[in-house]
Amino acid sequence: MINKKMASELNTQLNKEFYSAYLYLGMSSWCANTGYNGGASWFMLQYEEESMHALKIYKYILDQGSKIELLAIEQPDINYTSLLECFKDSLKHEQMMTHSLNELCDLASKQKDHASYGFLQWFIQEQIEEEASVGEIISKLKLVGDGNGIFMIDSQLSQRKSGTQVSE
User: Which domain of life is it from (predicted)?
Assistant: First the structure.
């Protein structure tokens, strides 16, 4: 069983994971409305992945005998001017999530909550992949600039399969 402070912080992280899913759903809709069908597909898979992360935390909180607190989910700002800007916002968000998860790990370590610390390690490893994946896409988008190459990258984004990050 986890203590009240850890349960509270995990519930806050649960909310952040649901916000992440909501943000990526919004990014998917922006891409679809802008004609970036590959980006729309990529962000839809990201939405599904973030939803899975939220449910993983949800189950852990319950398995630890703690109460779920469903907090309000903030409305994300999804007014982008380019696919590059959309992915830059995604990277900024993932970096914020990495910081949040690192703070949770620090708390678990300070409290000698080995179960929560071990549980959170999966998320820490996932964040390494998330940031690297989005960073790679940003590099490609910067490389092609505003030219026709963006359509090739958008096509590559549509090749992402569930459970994977970046297509070759």
Answer: Bacteria
Report whether 131 contacts 96 (CB < 8 A). no
- 53 annotated ligand binder: yes
Encoded amino acid at 59, one letter: K
> Please, where are the H alpha helices in 36-144?
37-63, 83-110, 114-144
Annotated binding residue 9: no
Residue 168 forms part of a structural domain: no
- pLDDT single digits (tens) 36-59: 999 999 999 999 999 999 999 999
Domain that holds residue 73: 4-157
Q: In this structure, is residue 99 part of a structural domain?
A: yes
pTM summary value: 0.91
